[in-house]
Write a structure and sequence with these properties.
Blueprint: E1 5-9, H1 13-31, E2 39-43, H2 46-54, H3 58-75, E3 79-82, H4 91-94, H5 105-115, E4 121-124, H6 127-131, H7 133-141, H8 151-163, H9 172-187, E5 192-195, E6 213-215, H10 216-229
Parallel strand pairs: 1-2, 1-3, 4-5, 5-6
Helix pairs in contact: 1-10, 5-10, 8-9
């Protein structure tokens, strides 16, 4: 029996599409034939979420996510995957009163970094994720020592995510900017790089980064499929 994965997505739609494609690919590789994952997907309007983020209305956003997760639970999901790094800031509030578990993206990523014997991951993500403790502390709990870009680079990483990647815009110029920032993190002592926003993998991968790359979207998908197929 395959467990049903409840995906709360739309933050952004670009990353949620990657989640769907990757999970389908992974299940097909594991089981063969016409197999595909059992999924429930609730894709939110990211414009509403972004408005709550920039206006600091995180509690209101948490209530919204909580209602949506409860709907996924009622629909038959066996566990929850939140298809975004940034909104894990609200993980505790989102899961309040929910009986099924959350597969946390930072925990899955930290576990993979530790397994590879690395210690100081660079982190490229939204400003919320790079600057607030909800994500960094999770990495530190796993005894990692995250390295973040300087303020100017953080602002540029964040801008490209919201103004371009979330709109499915991928340009050579922005790819070059991201490559330069990744290199500066390596020069600051990062022994690997966490693509800590589910859209960053649209510009960076192991082919254009000098240190080992950990794409949180792909890691999250792999962990979800493993959990769904667990006896």
């Amino acid at each position: 029996m395959m467990q049903t994965i409840g995906i709360l997505g739309g933050m952004s739609a670009a990353s949620t599409q990657i989640y769907y494609r990757k999970m389908c690919e992974l299940v097909r590789q594991r089981l063969g034939g016409l197999h595909s994952p059992e999924l429930l997907i609730r894709s939110l309007n990211f414009a509403n979420i972004e408005n709550l983020q920039v206006s600091g209305k995180w509690d209101e956003a948490g209530l919204l996510l909580n209602a949506e997760v409860k709907a996924l639970e009622r629909g038959g999901a066996d566990f929850i995957v939140l298809a975004t790094n940034t909104m894990h800031r609200l993980a505790e509030q989102m899961m309040d009163g929910v009986r099924i578990p959350l597969l946390h993206i930072a925990d899955a990523t930290a576990s993979r970094v530790v397994k590879e014997g690395l210690k100081a991951p660079g982190l490229m993500a939204t400003a919320f994720t790079m600057e607030q403790p909800f994500y960094l502390d999770r990495l530190r709990t796993a005894l990692l020592q995250p390295v973040v870009p300087d303020a100017t680079d953080r602002a540029e990483v964040h801008r490209i995510i919201y103004e371009e990647l979330c709109k499915d815009i991928v340009t050579p110029a922005s790819r070059s900017v991201y490559e330069d920032i990744a290199q500066r993190l390596a020069e600051k002592g990062a022994d690997c790089l966490i693509l800590g926003c589910t859209e960053v993998g649209m510009l960076l991968n192991q082919d254009n980064v000098s240190v080992p790359v950990f794409d949180t979207t792909l890691i999250h998908c792999e962990a979800a499929v493993e959990m769904a197929l667990r006896p």
